[in-house]
Amino acid sequence: MRVFSIIFTAFIFLGSPLKAQNVPEHISNKPLYEFIDELANDHIIEISSAVKPYSRQLISIKLKEAYRQKEKLSDRQLFELNMYLNDFSLELNEKTESKFALVKKDSTFLWSLLPPTLIYKDSLFRFNLKPVYGIQYCTNENDSLRHTWGGLAVHSYVGENWSVWASLRDNQQKGGRLARPSYLTQSQGGAYKGLTGGGKGGEFSEMRAGISWSWSWGSLSFEKDHVMMGDNYHSPSILSGRTPSYPMIKLQMQPTHWLDFHYHHGWLVSKVVDSLRSYVPYEGAPERVIYQPKYISANMFTITPIEKLDISVGNSIIYSDMDVYPGYLIPFAFYKSIVHTQSQYTGHNHNSAMFFNLSSRNIKHLHLYGTWFVDEFSVTRIGDDERTNFTGTKAGFRLSNWPIPNTAITAEYTFTYPKTYQHRTPSTTFETNRFNLGHYLTDNARELYLALSIKPFRGLSIDFSYLIAEKGNVVPYLYGEGRVDRDPFMEEVVWSNKTLSLKTRYSFYNNFSIFAEFYQKDIQGFDKDGTSAGEYLDMFTPEIFHGWTNTLSFGMQLGF
CB 112: neighbour CB atoms within 10 A? Predict the structure, then answer.
């Protein structure tokens, strides 16, 4: 831990005394992120969207920029903007408005029923405490499922540079589980245990927390949270954020307006048993299982050569079977080169990757974007019909508020070649808790996503979407049976998902909404490679969505 103490102390002394603080706004707050994105597409603000979450401080600055141009906003946008400005009053150091205040003391203390929140401010310390609760009920021809979650979230600021936050919520799913490591869904992953009292489903707890030191052009934090990398409107190809959260040291810097830098070093869960360290404490006791240590380092440089054009490049390393390696703590390093030095002649290199992201909002109302994830690449494979590089590609666009106001049209296509995200060493796969860190379809897959979003009046959103996703042959990363790069892309389809959906949501406040959704799904498995269609369905799909189904889902959400 001495290395981390030195790093943290160094940045405290390097940090500017100017006021700056940093609390991440979790990526699950999709309505807010879509609103920020809409403002950027309409040329009201500028935002670099390759890495999320954004800090609440950054969001508050962008909201203020939009308010100074409120004459350019529609009535619906202005309503949403005022709603979010009120929610970010702590960051803006402004008064929080509430029509249902239970206790109110000047500008120091507010206990509000709607929106539900507890706020305290003085010259040194500010905090905001919010309850978290939600319920979602799904029913179709196969079965019914209920997902409930609840807890508390708090974020606070101490002095001019320190930030502390925490969020704890318990999840319970009755009737089945929505996420397993093998499921090809975007449901949040968790460390499930069986339901109390038995039955189908599961329970898991998710704790996110952190402490951050910030200065005028950057921040350094120690936190446990989710990270998303890669522009997208459906699922990122670099880091999806759908795995269980993991602890990390995170560095963010923006020393000039045209350069944005993100880095983190995280502690993953390998789920690979260390047989030498595992033991039975005493006769008759269950075995004490110890996993191999596993870590990730990842960085992303975003350069803005001209306004509204962001070019991002980054790389990552996943390593295991050793203690934290100082070379991978260098935020700006090219880790593949360090691998060659550190693992020479071992036969099992660490798992490195590179990624590129392009985002253009140069045409008003139009966001064009693309991502290229490079796991393994050789120029000798280019043009060779019998060999493939291990890469994933995403391209898409969103057209906002043109030609029809309050609408958005989205198209996104993703394809990922075989073996991408895999590795020959089980402890260095691109996973944590066996959930893939990258695209939710993993390797040898493709997806087309189309969506039409309408916001007819303040608070209401209506989303129509169509999805077709296909998974090709399951090809493990094995040596000794020919070249590992000779598996063709999508030679056969073993699983497919065609989904037509209608989603509606009404937000009373930023952190309180009700929703209803209808899904018409056709999810099928196919008899291939000695595995039956039913086995592929069980492997990739929650039981409630097997086959052709018409699903009605509804519920409410308080907090994110």
Answer: 20
Q: List phi, psi (to 5°) of 91.
A: -70, -35
Q: Are 267 and 280 in contact (CB under 8 A)?
A: no
Long-range Cβ contact pairs of 154-157 (< 8 A, separation 24 or more): 154/127, 154/128, 154/129, 154/130, 155/23, 155/56, 155/90, 155/127, 155/128, 156/125, 156/126, 156/127, 156/128, 157/21, 157/23, 157/90, 157/125, 157/126, 157/127
Q: 127: part of which helix (H) or strand (E)?
A: strand 125-139
Cα 324 to its chain centre, rounded Å, is 24
Cross-strand bridge partners of residue 469: 447, 497
**Residue-level pLDDT at 13:** 46
Q: CA angle 252-241-371, nearest 5°?
A: 75
Q: Which alpha helices (DSSP H) does 252-369 contain, by range?
A: 335-342
Element (H, E) at 110: strand 109-114
State the DSSP H helix or E strand holding residue 539, giving kind and residue range, or none if neither.
helix 533-540
- The residue ranges of every structural domain in the chain are 2-94+125-158+160-558
Mean pLDDT score of the chain, rounded to an integer?
92
* Measured distance CA(394)–CA(374) in Å, rounded: 12
Question: In this structure, what token pair is assigned to residue 525?
Answer: 């498995």
User: What's the pLDDT score for residue 14?
Assistant: 46
Q: What is the pLDDT of residue 480?
A: 56
In angstroms, the CA 428 to CA 297 distance is 12
Spatial distance between the Cα atoms of 543 and 11, rounded to a whole number of angstroms: 50
| pLDDT tens profile 201-213 | 999 999 999 999 9
Give me the amino acid identity at 201: G
- Single-letter amino acid code for the residue at 9: T
Q: Could you tell me the two tokens for 370?
A: 């693309």
* CATH of span 2-94+125-158+160-558: 2.40.160.130
DSSP one-letter code for 78:
H
Pairing label, strands 109-114, 493-509: unpaired
Of the listed ranges 86-90, 112-116, 301-305, 523-527, the one predicted with least confidence: 112-116
